[in-house]
Design brief:
about 110 residues; alpha+beta
Length: about 110
Amino acid sequence: MFKLQYPPYARIIRLQCSSRLSWKHVKRAFELGAAGVFVTGCRLGDCHFITANYNTVRRFENWKKRLKNIGVREERFQLRLFGAPDVTDLVEPPTMNLSLLRSYFGESGCVSRL
């Protein structure tokens, strides 16, 4: 087992299941100035809670529309479903999106606009 390094600007919040994430969590993150919210979960069909990740996908699409209506760009809210062998995918997206987020907020990472 190898230890993966997360970018220093990433804050990991663990939940028992991706379906435990609520709209309040997502909205509050952006209100507090998060540059982006990245939701991860099990692959469809691999969920320990049977169909919970199907609910996550359905709710994600709804939340994306709500965020768009309040002015949050689509790139700032992402969902990724993967299995245990794909664990390196957990570290890659925040690293890849750094340049995109910096283009919105500058080098300081301060949120000046939604």
